Amino acid sequence: MTKKYFYIALAAFSLMSCVKEDDLDQHDPNVNTEANFWKTDEDGLKGVTAVYQSLITDGTYMRSTPLLLDARADDTHSVSPWGAMFTAGKFTTVISLDDIYGWAFKDYYQGIYRANQVILNVPNIAFSDPALKDRVMGQAYFLRGLLFFHLVNLYNRVPLPLDMELYHGQKTHEEGWQQVISDLQKASDLLPVSYTNLNGLDKGHTGRATKGAAMAYLGKAYLFTKDFAKAKEQFEKVINLGTYSLVGNYADNFTDANENNAESIFELQFDRNAGGIDLGWGGAPGSSWGKTSARAITYGPPGFGFNDIQPTKALFNEYQVERTINGELDPRLGVTMFYNHPGETLYGKDFATNYANNPAYLNDVFTKKYQNYNNGSVSEYDWRSGINERLMRYADVLMMYAECLNELGNTAQAYDYIQMVRSRVQLPDLRTTKPGMTQAQMREQIGHERFLEFSLEGHRFDDIRRWGWLQDQSKLNWLKSRDNEFNTYSPGREFYPIPLTEIDNNPNGLTQNPGW
């Protein structure tokens, strides 16, 4: 199924999904309400499809969430003139302004509100297809769990609404992870491995959450809470499904040429040909909204995009630490960033020629992942990228599984799964180049491998934080030497602040995160 068909059901549910109590009191016959909507199999499917809409708004993956995940790591830095972007990477977010970090917070809860409608209403529908009912519920639990994952991971102590009430009290970080795990476990029990061979209304709906996606994120949640045994179990289940494999060409994970491929466990569906041409800035979706992303223009190189997020020279240099078995540069370097070397082009223009009159640009590096440089686009200035966002790749499962093996004392076996990822880019056998590593040495190696495989994909700072590097003065000093944005880090600022508007408006007495 092509991406545009996935979005058809969004429009049918968009008005109902953001209805407020005052609207319900008016009983407008032209507006879907809870009282007249949740009746049929199709209603249930439309309801859960609308939750996906909340993942492609400005606060989520249209633009803000990648920024929040990438900005603070040592693989990126920001030169944006917009303070909200510039300060995010420097741990100095201005909490009196909601820009970016507040928009994400709001949009996560919009998605949770929609998921809760599904979870509370679908059980009361007498589905003609009980298996479809399970799949609808499984998707709702998965999407709520994913949104809770972002909230707990980015904002620490947050409300965890499981009903339709507007205000809820704050939960601890540990309670947050427990809820994430609970939702993802339910999702993994209910979701199918694939939608290809189903007979229901959702047959062939590529892009919907699957069992593999739920198990992969469940394993990730366990990993982030240092329950390595349970994380290992979930990653093994994903591997044993036999559904996923690494694609031969690393670049195919970041362009529109090979989307929903064998490596993709969960990705968000963007499409220039679906919907209208307006961007999804937030709020109730309109009929003119498109299903496109602003990531490309935000990260795009100067003259072709805004260059708000750039790769660091530390990342550039680390790609050159090790050569391939043929003595060549790691091919992921040329996929990840534009830089001045023979044959390099940007959107059909020679790099060196284009920046010849600007020495600073000529000798700098710029983001290439998720850019439309090879599909005929001349720039990103139309703001409408159709490249899908790959949230969970099989390579990540293999690397997280290797990490679990190492933490559980099976360092020798960890080599095998790391090498699967290395072999794709023709890096030599790690057992030969670094035989007999200790557990501590393997931890460092995994840090290096993940840095290069997942750069600018929103993983690096999560890794830094969960590995405790910010509390290790030697590691923090090392990070500062690679990326001067860490010079303004202070304890507690590994999490973003709770938006002040939320603290002011919530009668349950939310408290600000420590350090803010």
List the helices and strands and how they pair.
Blueprint: H1 3-6, H2 8-17, H3 21-26, H4 34-37, H5 41-53, H6 64-70, E1 76-78, H7 83-88, H8 101-121, H9 130-155, H10 173-190, H11 211-224, H12 228-241, E2 264-268, E3 271-275, E4 290-291, H13 295-299, E5 309-311, H14 313-318, H15 331-336, E6 337-338, E7 345-346, E8 349-350, H16 351-354, H17 359-362, E9 366-367, E10 389-393, H18 394-407, H19 411-424, H20 430-433, H21 439-453, H22 460-466, H23 473-482, H24 500-505
Antiparallel strand pairs: 1-5, 2-10, 3-4, 6-9, 7-8
Please give the alpha-carbon distance between the first and last residues.
46 Å
Mean pLDDT: 93
Q: How many helical stretches? A: 24
Strand arrangement, largest sheet? 1-5
Largest sheet report: 2 strands, antiparallel
Low-confidence stretches at least 5 residues in length (pLDDT < 50)? 7-25
> How does the helix and strand content classify structurally?
mainly alpha
Gross morphology is globular
Q: How many β strands by DSSP?
A: 10
Helix content: 40-55%
Percent of residues in beta strands: 5-15%
Rg: 22 Å
